[in-house]
Amino acid sequence: MEFTAEQLSQYNGTDESKPIYVAIKGRVFDVTTGKSFYGPGGDYAMFAGKDASRALGKMSKNEEDVSPSLEGLSEKEINTLNDWETKFEGKYPVVGRVVS
Known about the structure:
100 residues, alpha+beta, Flavocytochrome B2, Chain A, domain 1, 4-stranded mixed β-sheet, 31% helix, MAPR/NEUFC/NENF-like, steroid-binding, Cyt_B5-like_heme/steroid_sf, Cyt_B5-like_heme/steroid-bd, lipid-binding
């Protein structure tokens, strides 16, 4: 399934009837089973319904870092992002990708 950023934003956990999605490097993961983390009030709720690549690479929860942009990330941050992607692949199903 393909999602625009706007469509992806509808899967942010605020509508109980919809799953919760987080994208990494454009791949959309269904993180609904991690609702306590990604749902409203969760430690990582700011990532829900968004591509959180930059924030995950920087290990940041700052709203301005929740972005698909990898521009300016260090090699260490790219490796951190790749580690997150591997963790997500092992835990959550891929349901689509983000398109512009």
